[in-house]
Structures are given as C-alpha cells and as structure tokens.
Write a structure and sequence with these properties.
The protein is built from 19 helices and no strands. The protein has 476 residues and is mostly helical. The longest helix is centred in the last third of the chain and has 34 residues.
C-alpha cells in the first residue's frame, strides 16, 4: 500500500473517525450560524464571514494582492455616499496588509528604503511645517494623512512587485484598460457623440493607458503586435469619448514621445556592429522602426470607419476643440485660468509656507476679498486644477520644490532604467515606464492631481513600478 506523506506526519494513534466527526460538526455549526444571520438580516456580518477565506487567500498570495489593487484603480467611487474614503482605499489597505505579512515572513528585513521614499518623507515634512503655520492647522491633518497613506501604498506595491513581475502588473493594467475603455465608448457611441462618457475610473487613466498601449505595440513580439494595436485603438476611442481636450492632446503627445524615443533607440542599436546583436534582436529593432507607420494607418482607418458609420460623432469633438482656437477663453479653459491666477496670487502673498495644506478649497474663507460664485464647486472638487500651483499656494516655495523634486526624480529613475535595458528581456517595460514618467512630469506642470484622490493611487502604482524596475536593472 502506498504511504502518503500526510500519513507519515500523523501520529500512530490518530483517530480518523473522531477527526471527521469534529469537521462535520464544525461545518454544520458554521452553516447553521450563516443561516441564522441570513434569517435575521445580518448581511454585513454575513458578508465579512464569507469574504474572510477570500481575504486570507489574497493576503497570502502577492499576485492576488497586486491584482486586486490594480483592479481598484478603475473604480473611482466612495465607500459610503458623501465620505472621502474610496473603494481603492480599502483595496490599498489590503495591499499594505499583504506587504506587511510578506515582510514579517522573511527571515531578513530590508536594510534600506526604495528610491523615491525620501521624496515622500520630504513632502510630508513640508506639509507638516506648512500646516503648523497655517491659518487653520487642523485642516492640514487630512492632506498629511492622505500623503502618508499614499507613501504606504507605494512601499507596499514596491515590496510585492519584487514577488510579482513588473511586466505582469503592466500587462494586467493594459487589459483592464481595454475592458474599461469598451464600457466607456459604448454610451458615447449609442448617444451619437452627444454624451460625454467617463466610465468608473478617473479620466487621466485613459491618457496613461494610451501611452502604455503605444509602447506595448511598438515592442510587442511579431505575432501579438496586432492585438496591442487593436487595444490601442479601443483606448484611443475611450479617450475621445470623454471629450477631455487636454487629456486627448497630452495622450497623443506623450504617445508620440514614446514613438520618438523607441525609434531613436532602435536606430542607434541598429547602427552598432550587427555582430554584437543576434538576428532576433535585429529583427525586433527593425520592426520598431516600421511600426509607427502601421500605427498611424490603423488609427486613421479606425477613425474614418467610425465616421462613415456614425458621422455625427465628429461634431461634438470639433465643438470642444473650437474653443481653444478662440481669442477669448471660455468654458472649462476659462475656469482653469481663473484657478491658476488665484493659486498664483496666493503664493505671491504667502511665498514661504502658503495659506496652509487643504485650505485652497476654502479659500473664500481665508481671503474675504475672493468671491468664487459659480467657481465654488470646481474649487471644492478640483482645487487649483494644477498640482504644482496647488502646492505653491498651499505650502509655499518648499511645497513647489517638493512636488517638482518627486516628479523629476521619478523621471530620472525611469530614464536610467531605459538606458540600462538594452539587451534585457521585457524591454517594453522600460519603454512603458519612460512614457508614463514623462506624462506624469509634464502633466504636473499643466494640470493633474497625482497626490490626492483616485489619481493618487494611480501615481503610487506607477512610481512603485518605476522604482522597482530601476532597482532590477540599475542597482542589481
């Protein structure tokens, strides 16, 4: 008779029938308890009990912990109506718990913090200092806590990305972006272009997804490039569905930048001695140089096909961009200029420590001469609509320096990894992260909210991958 390892581990006097009886009784009591809760309407407790095995599985499997966090990036909703806590906060806490569990299970603890950690610590110090000298110091607690949580999300994602490949995380983000883009485009298509469709995720996500899709198409293997091209077209139409002019322009510009860097790298590598590169590598570099033409042809064909089937789709987009060409700004563009001027004036009046973290959305209470009128809702929800100006207004010159230092450093890390990635597997990862880093840096100087709200989770996700990729390619 075959003796299984479990049999050898059990004591000789182990009573199997008694053990099975205990299991049966435990399961019976559990079923009865769940049935009682269902009968009494204790749905919250019932859900927690049923979710506990799934939660334990997620906490003990790094890939599941990272996957559920990436999935949460696409759900921009509050846990409770009117509360600042988002679903992504709950998923972020699960990610942190999984990272802590993974950390304590190791016999050797890390001896240093990952790159960009000191940028977070410097930003927290600046926010704390500005809060102390604020008009209302207690208001600074929330922005300080939000950045602290974002720092923890960054550390947790960095930790678990060492167990889960960076390529896997980016690939999952890409496919979820396609699914979300389809859900965004359907209402826009069904309404004939009259409905601006955003989906569940913040609109910045489509811009970043377009950059990811561009890099994946350029550096994809020969047999899978067409799949990535279709995915890129779908994401592009989702970006058009939002009719968000700045994001459409920035997404197209940053995708063009990725094409430029990729083609330049391919040309430089092909210019080297071909005997130093195998034939497979040469073929990949040649394809990278040619694929922008296929990309342009695919996008033009898709746009023309959509206009032939639904010619009315073009009208609302043209109306949105028509305002940018007028001599007098109007609509949301006018709103931005008003908010930017307001933020700049507050920085000039309070250049050292600003008016205080978290106070820009209450600026009419700080400066009685300001009358927001119809702009109050936008200020309350979007603040200065520009990350750099927002921190200059709320935390002074040190706030602006802290924000710029973080954005420049993440760009620097991605560029170093890009230079070191030649001849390494998954070269497309460095191309993706270089495009993402450039997009984050440029949009910080135009408009963005990378340090609060749902965009904060997206920022923590990508810069953790940038730091991990830099560590894998440059420091090891």
């Amino acid at each position: 008779m075959t003796e299984y390892p479990l049999n050898r581990a059990l004591p000789a006097d182990f009573n199997r029938p008694a053990f099975l009886l205990y299991i049966f009784m435990t399961l019976s009591l559990l079923v009865l308890g769940l049935g009682y809760m269902l009968y009494k309407g204790k749905y919250l407790y019932l859900g927690l009990i049923l979710a506990s095995p799934i939660l334990i599985m997620i906490l003990t499997q790094p890939k599941l912990a990272v996957g559920q966090f990436i999935f949460a990036l696409f759900i921009s909703r509050s846990i409770f109506e009117g509360q600042p806590w988002l679903y992504a906060d709950l998923n972020g806490l699960i990610l942190i718990a999984a990272a802590v569990l993974d950390l304590v299970s190791e016999s050797k603890l890390p001896n240093k913090l990952p790159r960009l950690s000191f940028n977070f610590l410097f930003l927290l110090l600046v926010v704390f200092t500005a809060g102390v000298f604020s008009y209302q110091p207690e208001v600074a607690i929330r922005p300080f806590g939000r950045i602290t949580l974002q720092f923890l999300y960054f550390l947790a994602m960095y930790r678990l990305s060492g167990k889960v490949s960076v390529a896997w995380s980016l690939n999952l983000f890409f496919w979820l972006s396609i699914v979300h883009s389809i859900l965004v485009f359907i209402p826009f298509l069904a309404s004939g272009g009259t409905l601006r469709s955003y989906g569940l995720a913040p609109v910045q996500l489509a811009m970043l997804a377009l950059v990811v899709a561009t890099a994946k198409f350029l550096w994809a293997k020969k047999g899978t490039a067409w799949i990535h091209l279709i995915g890129m077209v779908v994401i592009f139409f989702a970006l058009l569905s939002a009719q968000y002019r700045s994001l459409i322009i920035m997404g197209a510009a940053m995708s063009t930048l990725v094409i430029f860097f990729s083609r330049r790298r391919a040309r430089l590598e092909l210019g080297k001695n071909s005997r130093e590169t195998d034939s497979t590598g040469i073929g990949e570099l040649i394809r990278v140089r040619k694929r922008p033409l296929y990309l342009l042809a695919g996008l033009l064909f898709s746009v023309l096909l959509a206009l032939v089937i639904y010619p009315q789709l073009l009208a609302p987009l043209l109306e949105r961009f028509e305002g940018l060409l007028s001599a007098r700004p109007s609509g949301t563009f006018l709103l931005r200029t008003v908010l930017w001027k307001m933020a700049w004036s507050q920085f000039i009046d309070n250049p050292l420590v600003g008016i205080g973290p978290g106070l820009f959305n209450q600026i009419q209470n700080v400066e009685p001469t300001i009358r927001l009128n119809i702009f109050h809702w936008y200020v309350r929800g979007l603040s200065a609509h520009n990350l750099l100006l927002h921190y200059l207004a709320e935390a002074g010159i040190l706030g602006g320096i802290a924000v710029l230092a973080m954005m420049i450093n993440q760009m620097r890390l991605s560029y170093k990894a890009w230079l070191e990635s030649v001849g390494r597997p998954n070269f497309e990862v460095s191309a993706i992260l270089l495009g993402i880093a450039a997009t984050i840096l440029i949009t910080t100087l135009t408009e963005s909210s990378w340090l609060w709200g749902q965009s904060g989770f997206i920022f923590a996700f990508f810069i953790s991958l940038i730091a991990r990729n830099h560590n894998n390619l440059v420091l090891t």
